[in-house]
């Protein structure tokens, strides 16, 4: 009886959440969306009513991925705590009507405001900014119809005090840049299309009345990212023209990300010469044409650099070591390095070298030794083949970088050299990686759990050892050096793909299983792994990597059949934290079994499937959407007819749009001629983050914007 009474007393004295200290409760509440705190949680009891309005919780309000927020909730939120908000992030809230912006005027003390991706007119912007006298940081979109002449004098007074501006341009314009006379940080995203919806060619000339000159005298950071198209190049040159006349003395970060060819002109050459004479940089990224064949890097001066991007440049390893890393000197300040597409960056010279030749391990060794604090490294889109020298494999050298948080590698760089030399080609390696008649081959069996895998020789591979050494890695990309997505940005879908590198032919299930050692992994991309036979390694990842939020798989195994479907479905049953899933695979069948497995991903928010000749079952899609209440984006580009796609899209919108205000559905034939017109209507947030395939490691400097 004494024992029973003691147990009852212990149960009655169980832990009560309200008995925790205020500090602990505030930490717990910091994980709850602000809209829930203010509109729901604080109404439960007096103590929570007080804590939910604590300055630590209301100082910064993040709505950028609160897909359940609507106009009424924003209105109530601003009414209740508007005066307490100092930082407001509404980036990507494309579903909110433009009238929602009117309620931001209640936030009189705002210092930082992010409205990227929100619908806003010139007049609404003017009215809002006129009341925000303390604003110092602003992010907005400039859409067709924007008219700077509609900005009031009070609005321009506010803009004159703004020191940080992020501007996404969908039309040729200076936007509000000329009004920002105190700019220290300027981020420009050029998303202007070359043709209008009516098919007319657009010009890069600015609109009438926009001849005001930007003020760059206090500029410290200049960043420009260009989408494909000549109009974007024309407009960015107008922004750069002022910089070429007088380079700001305090400029320490100069970054231009431009796809394709962006030729150097006399004005840009003058700008670079002026930078070489007058400034010391901490971050640098230039178009490849501005670096290739020039001695620019030899003359630029650096202070304590934290970010370098030489993406797609023909920079040799010799130049990298001598001109950037100063002959192997200490460069501990560098935390992010993008060498994507630099095919010769790990070779001493590039003049007589083939892209497939072995790398010079001493160059990588110098890089690793000098930049020992690297957290983000991108070596994708190149053939980095290690030699047979013992201890000098690329994976072995990279394992010394203990602080890595994100890493992108080509598939051919992770294979063991011995495996390529000693292992004769098997039947699976002789299967053509193209579309056509299916060939029946013997399937090698792989163990389905990590314990059996450990008994094989795979744990002795260099890639297995690398994954074991990077226990705190959060983002990993393993992408075939010749991989290209079937759905590019502004062109028709790609019908044929290049074959994988010969060295990549041995990379398959065992290498995928090795990734399961990275237990804190949050984002994983696997593309063009030709030797995937069963996909068993995916199951190990699902079991071990419980923090996985983003998964992107493309062209795994044979191209004529989805050989890993069974393993993928088993994997998805364990991915309780998965939010974004992108699948790109020919002949993918999005049927009832697949969607039933996907329904286990209770946190899933965004789904994108790209599949040439792929099929879908409309009833299965509808059932999946009904069961997974968090899904707000469903993009499927398959081989179905236009009628089937349109009917399914209309059914999804009609059934779920009312309860999911942020719902964005695009169901469309992949090879349809109007695909590019459909793509242009996709919200930039989804298009940039998941729908379009690209390497995202070290794509931008860390903490470029809050």
TrEMBL record:
One GO term describing the cellular component: SCF ubiquitin ligase complex
Species this chain originates from: Galbula dea
Protein name: FXL18 protein
A Pfam family assignment: LRR_FBXL18
InterPro entries the record matches: F-box-like_dom_sf, F-box_dom, FBXL18_F-box, FBXL18_LRR, LRR_dom_sf
UniProt domain F-box: residue ranges: 14-61
Biological-process GO terms, alphabetical: SCF-dependent proteasomal ubiquitin-dependent protein catabolic process
